[in-house]
């Protein structure tokens, strides 16, 4: 996986976790849900990149 893509995907997952935690803390269910969705998107992209890298080797 390219370092830039890996950093971008991890960043997306981390931002999602922050949004989810903030949403829980302030009682904002919408922000919490957006955070979870962002985490899942980042995780999915990481998994796809790992699979693509595995096929290359």
Output the structural class. mainly alpha
What shape does the CA trace take? Answer: elongated
- Sheet-strand content, in percent, reads under 5%
Q: How far apart, in Å, are the first and last alpha carbons?
A: 11 Å
The tally of strands reads 0
Mean pLDDT: 91
- Main beta sheet: none
Radius of gyration (CA) equals 13 Å
* SS field, number of helical segments: 2
* Percent of residues in helices: over 70%
Low-pLDDT ranges? none
Query: Would you list the SSEs in sequence order as H and E?
Result: HH
What's the layout of helices and strands?
Elements: H1 3-26, H2 29-56
Helix pairs in contact: 1-2
Description:
Helix content is 91%, strand content 0%. It is mostly helical. It is built from 2 helices and no strands.
Summarize the structure.
This protein has 57 residues and is an all-alpha fold. The chain has helices at 3-26, 29-56.
Keywords:
elongated; mainly alpha; 57 residues
């Amino acid at each position: 996986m390219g370092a830039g893509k890996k950093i971008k995907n991890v960043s997306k997952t981390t931002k999602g976790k922050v949004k989810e935690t903030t949403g829980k803390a302030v009682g904002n269910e919408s922000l919490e849900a957006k955070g979870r969705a962002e985490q899942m998107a980042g995780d999915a992209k990481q998994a796809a990149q790992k699979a693509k890298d595995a096929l290359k080797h």
